[in-house]
Amino acid sequence: MQKQKALYYWEITKAAAGDKMDIVLIGMPGCGKSSIGKSVAKRLNMQFIDIDAEIERQEEKSIAEIFEVSGEGYFREKETECLRASFGKSRVIATGGGVVGRDENLKILKNNEAVVVFIDRPLENIMRNVRTDTRPLLKSGKDKLEALYKERYDRYIAACDIRIVNDTSKTDAVNKIINEVKSYEDNGNKRT
Fold first, then answer.
1. pLDDT beyond 80 at 9
2. How many C-beta atoms lie closer than 10 Å to residue 132's C-beta?
3. Can you tell me the distance from the alpha carbon of 18 to that of 89, in angstroms, rounded to the nearest whole number?
4. Going by C-beta distance under 8 Å and a sequence separation of 6 or more, which residues neighbour residue 22?
5. pTM (two decimals)
6. Residue 10, pLDDT above cutoff 90
7. Would you call 165 helix, strand, or coil by DSSP?
8. pLDDT digits 0-9 by tens, 49-86
């Protein structure tokens, strides 16, 4: 109970002060970046931005349509542009699963006043829940998902400031992120 009171006090004082760092969520497709990100943003009174949704809004096409019509290279350029434009005070930013594939994006993640959180969901959990038929890079099935996981995992680790394991519930993952970000900031790990 004492920990919850301390966390609540931190949330209220940070919201009043308006000095929160952005929180950037990275991880595999299906790890929970968007749904968890919305909940974290709501709890911390922060703005939520979903990079993939922003690209779809700007392009007036689904991600699948963008891949089909313009190709992955075009999509990755748009992703980098949107990532660069998303930073500001008090934002929770959900990235696409492939954002760590470009070195330029890794530099953007490291050179902003933000804390980067890797939502590490076990591959077997992702495979149980993710629909591969609706995601352009996963249309060839679960084997592709496993290959992407192996290809990207070390890059997620290199990019993150905090790694949380999402192996129970959404509520648990939200609480882990809030607690870890609080600890990260309390220990003076702010970027400039």
1. no
2. 17
3. 8
4. 86, 87, 88, 89, 90, 91, 92, 93, 112, 113, 114, 115
5. 0.85
6. no
7. strand
8. 999 999 999 999 999 899 999 999 999 999 999 999 99
